[in-house]
């Protein structure tokens, strides 16, 4: 047994309204690759920020090499041998590699010496990198190498990596893993955060699993299956759906062979997505954000136009129809980002009602807006969905996130859609409001509409979905009835493990 | 230390107070500038702001306010559409020139036919189309190839100026002008003049400017197009979600501002200026940018700002002739206005807090 490097004892950190970490204790040993697993919101980020000195815990303590460890800021943590590579890089595009690295150092050596050291480290650890190349010309994988080398130059004892493979190509992942194994062999401990279970099985020796801020289990990923880990992540206690599965009326939406490039840089392309939704049915689409959720919503809302035959609504090919033509046909959507996408922050709630309800609520005549009707509709949304605001004249940005979300969802539901597509409908919404939103979605389906809920919250999806599918790297697994779906099956669908790929091809 | 704190929503109070504050700051710093040039600042400010309106010669200056203000308001109204939508047409000066050239060319082609019902409407049509067409160059390039409309529209100003010189010296030159550059004088061509009442400063451009203010107000506050323009300017992604076609909006905004600038140029060449000459344009297209922002991109605000800017023009000319202030000092004075307006604009979105820095 290797000796303990860092031990966490009863770390607790609460933010207003939410406990991010509760009584978290575990040890990281010298030279081990330790995985930190958990769903979004499980408290992983808060925990690593605590270790890196960015967050001060409310209770509990840490010991590094047996001595008390209370980093007041990252500088202290770095001096004591704790380094971190963030998911988002902090590099200046216009500067070269050596200059970027020198900027992060307290006493940078002369450029020529630094370049030599960079070359030295990059050769030792198999991270090919030219110190004089401009960062703007580097790939995501190469940028990550800059960040890793920046850490390695400090000779760390513990290296924290937050979702390091999310931006890498498979080849770059292979290079990264070799580097990490080499570091581990030399005695550097690595705390590795990822959603990708197969990666963790390939790389890590120990895994600590967080759920709702608590440590719910520890295992050896090499000896555990992806199923077992997924089960621990989501908990064996997923809520059973309380409603009977819908009978399934006529087919509302048919998506077949939907492939499209992302309209945004660094977005995820949609690849050969196929599914259908029937009237009265709720289809839940799970998956970690950034796997094509925004793009799928855009393809359904009409912001992203697709080739003929890919998207059919009530039998009509609507792939080239714009958002308002789709609204006229009763296909409504609510994107994830409330500020600046679903709603205009500087505009009043009345104006935000016009944003999507102009067509269906008849808010204009010959192009002239009927502000009285718009205001009445905004007031109706506020009243029916219990939006806490002094009135419809307030700017959208003056509302709290949860309240604005209620307004956005309510605005679409009250327009009586035949198909409603929502992305992360309860993200950042408090528990009672979230329950109200879910109930409203269920009522909508009970009234004969089809509903598609895209969410990261598995409990939510299990509670309201009739069928469930997972979105992974732009591909959608074949939807399955949500009732009777076991936790391990969900985990496998989400992880994009191999048998699901086969199922996808069959579909 | 001074801290800026974001307001939960933009302050309506400051939205309307900042232009006044900017004018006040301009007066103060302009006064300092005039003092440093060796002039009595109070006299200089009085000459610029009060003499055109209230001096004994005011009856001569007041019509000039309409003549100077009309093109500014007309162009600024057009620009405000684009500026609200985040489409930056900086080349109104060029569209103004081309509008004037096209309008004048139609009239000169038909000279000496007298038919006011035909010629003047044709001039209006071609003036507007000329400005619109010139504005479509940056518009189509932006929509098709993603070019920057600021650079393209600005550079086209210099192309238009060269074109103006070529026309004044070439095809549009007055055949009876003894070889001097410049076209026939349109004010002496009854069917082609925009003058209604020269003594009162009234010409068709003034009427069109007032109409544009009313129309812009209705479109901005009541019409779906105005809503889409504001939405696209504030959050482009929400606009796309709402169903706004971004390319179409770019063309509408550039087209509107181009057509109005072209009209302004046409009214100018057939009225106050009278002829196509090498130095026909005097920078209205650029000053209108200041007018648009000073008026908060709001039609009524633009009307007031246009009046104020016309005042500084007339007052500036008086100050030049009576106090021997250099023309550059007056231009600097006008530029200060925009500078201070943009600077104090921060107050509408932020609150200034004086407090000691908290220890993190």
Automatic annotation (TrEMBL), chain A:
CDD domains: ABC_Carb_Monos_I (cd03216), ABC_Carb_Monos_II (cd03215). The keyword Membrane applies. This is Sugar ABC transporter, ATP-binding protein. It is found in: Cell membrane. Pfam families: ABC_tran. It is a peripheral membrane protein. One of its GO terms (molecular function) is ATP hydrolysis activity. The keyword ATP-binding applies. Keywords: ATP-binding, Cell membrane, Membrane, Nucleotide-binding, Repeat, Sugar transport, Translocase, Transport. It comes from Oceanicola granulosus (strain ATCC BAA-861 / DSM 15982 / KCTC 12143 / HTCC2516). Its main location: membrane. One of its GO terms (cellular component) is plasma membrane.
UniProtKB/TrEMBL annotation, chain B:
It is found in: Cell membrane. The keyword Cell membrane applies. Pfam families: BPD_transp_2. Its main location: membrane. It is a multi-pass membrane protein. The chain crosses the membrane at residues 12-37, 65-83, 95-111, 117-137, 149-169, 204-225, 246-267, 273-294, 301-319, 325-347. Keywords: Cell membrane, Membrane, Transmembrane, Transmembrane helix. GO terms for molecular function: transmembrane transporter activity. It comes from the Bacteria. GO terms for cellular component: plasma membrane. This is Sugar ABC transporter, permease protein.
């Amino acid at each position: 047994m290797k000796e303990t490097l860092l031990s966490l004892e009863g770390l607790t950190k609460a933010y207003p309204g939410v406990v991010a970490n509760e009584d978290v204790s575990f040890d990281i040993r010298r030279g081990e690759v330790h995985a930190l697993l958990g769903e979004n919101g499980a408290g992983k980020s808060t925990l690593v920020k605590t270790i890196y000195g960015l967050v001060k815990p409310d209770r509990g303590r840490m010991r590094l090499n047996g001595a008390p460890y209370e980093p007041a800021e990252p500088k202290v943590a770095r001096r004591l041998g704790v380094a971190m590579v963030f998911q988002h890089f902090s590099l200046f595009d216009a500067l070269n590699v050596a200059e970027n690295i020198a900027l992060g150092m307290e006493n940078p050596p002369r450029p020529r010496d630094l370049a030599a050291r960079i070359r030295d480290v990059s050769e030792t650890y198999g991270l090919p990198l030219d110190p004089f190349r401009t960062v703007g010309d580097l790939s995501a994988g190469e940028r990550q190498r800059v960040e890793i080398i920046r850490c390695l130059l400090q000779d760390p004892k513990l290296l924290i990596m937050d979702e390091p493979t999310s931006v890498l190509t498979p080849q770059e992942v292979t290079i990264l893993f070799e580097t990490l194994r080499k570091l581990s062999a030399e005695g550097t401990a690595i705390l590795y955060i990822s959603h990708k279970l197969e990666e963790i099985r390939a790389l890590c020796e120990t895994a600590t699993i967080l759920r709702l801020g608590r440590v719910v289990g520890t295992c050896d990923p090499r000896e555990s299956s992806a199923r077992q880990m997924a089960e621990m992540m989501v908990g064996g206690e997923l809520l059973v759906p309380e409603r009977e599965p819908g009978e399934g009326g006529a087919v509302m939406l048919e998506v077949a062979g939907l492939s499209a490039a992302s309209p945004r840089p660094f977005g995820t392309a949609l690849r050969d997505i196929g599914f259908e939704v029937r009237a009265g049915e709720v289809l839940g689409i799970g998956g970690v954000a950034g796997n094509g959720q925004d793009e799928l919503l855009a393809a359904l809302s009409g912001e992203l136009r697709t080739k003929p035959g890919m998207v059919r609504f009530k039998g009509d090919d609507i792939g080239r129809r714009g958002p308002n033509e789709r609204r006229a046909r009763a296909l409504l959507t609510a994107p994830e980002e409330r500020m600046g996408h679903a709603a205009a922050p500087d505009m009043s709630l009345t104006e935000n009602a016009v944003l999507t309800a102009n067509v269906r609520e008849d808010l204009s005549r010959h192009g002239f807006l009927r502000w009285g009707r718009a205001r009445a509709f905004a007031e109706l949304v506020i009243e029916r969905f219990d939006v806490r605001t002094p009135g419809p004249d307030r700017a959208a940005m003056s509302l709290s996130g949860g309240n604005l979300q209620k307004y956005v969802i309510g605005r679409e539901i009250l327009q009586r859609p035949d198909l409603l597509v929502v992305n992360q409908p309860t993200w950042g919404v408090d528990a009672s409001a979230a329950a109200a939103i879910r109930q409203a979605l269920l009522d909508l389906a009970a009234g004969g509409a089809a509903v598609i809920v895209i969410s990261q919250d598995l409990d939510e999806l299990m509670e309201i979905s009739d069928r469930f599918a997972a979105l992974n790297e732009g591909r959608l697994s074949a939807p399955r009835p949500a009732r009777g779906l076991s936790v391990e099956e969900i985990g496998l669908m989400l992880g994009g493990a191999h048998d699901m790929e086969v199922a996808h091809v069959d579909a | 230390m001074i801290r800026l704190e974001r307001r939960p929503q933009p302050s309506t109070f400051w939205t309307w107070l900042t232009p006044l504050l900017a004018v006040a700051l301009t007066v103060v710093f302009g006064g300092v500038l005039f003092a440093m040039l060796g002039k009595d600042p109070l006299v200089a400010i009085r000459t610029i702001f009060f003499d055109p309106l209230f001096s004994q010669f005011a009856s001569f200056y007041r019509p000039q306010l309409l003549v100077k203000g009309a093109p500014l308001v007309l162009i600024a109204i057009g620009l405000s559409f684009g500026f609200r939508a985040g489409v930056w047409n900086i080349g109104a000066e060029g569209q103004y020139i081309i509008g004037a050239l096209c309008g004048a060319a139609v009239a000169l082609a038909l000279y000496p036919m007298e038919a006011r019902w035909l010629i003047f409407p044709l001039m209006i049509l071609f003036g507007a189309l000329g400005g619109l067409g010139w504005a479509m160059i940056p518009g189509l390039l932006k929509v098709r190839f993603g070019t920057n409309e600021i650079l393209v529209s600005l550079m086209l100003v210099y192309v238009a100026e060269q074109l103006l010189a070529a026309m004044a010296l070439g095809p549009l030159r007055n055949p009876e002008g003894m070889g001097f550059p410049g076209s026939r004088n349109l004010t002496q061509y009854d069917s082609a003049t925009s003058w209604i009442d020269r003594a009162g400063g009234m010409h068709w451009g003034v009427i069109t400017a007032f109409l544009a203010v009313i129309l812009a107000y209705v479109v901005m506050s009541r019409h779906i197009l105005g809503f889409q323009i504001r939405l696209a300017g504030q959050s482009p992604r929400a606009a796309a979600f709402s169903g706004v076609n971004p390319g179409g909006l770019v063309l509408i905004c550039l087209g509107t501002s181009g057509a109005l600038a072209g009209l302004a140029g046409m009214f100018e060449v057939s009225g106050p200026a009278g002829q196509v000459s090498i130095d026909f344009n005097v920078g209205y297209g650029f000053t209108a940018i200041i007018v648009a922002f000073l008026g908060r991109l709001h039609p009524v605000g633009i009307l007031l700002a246009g009046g104020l800017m016309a005042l500084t023009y007339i007052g500036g000319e008086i100050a030049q002739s009576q106090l021997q202030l250099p023309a550059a000092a007056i231009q600097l004075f006008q530029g200060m206005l925009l500078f201070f307006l943009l600077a104090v604009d921060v107050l509408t979105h932020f609150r200034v807090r004086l407090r000691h820095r908290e220890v993190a």
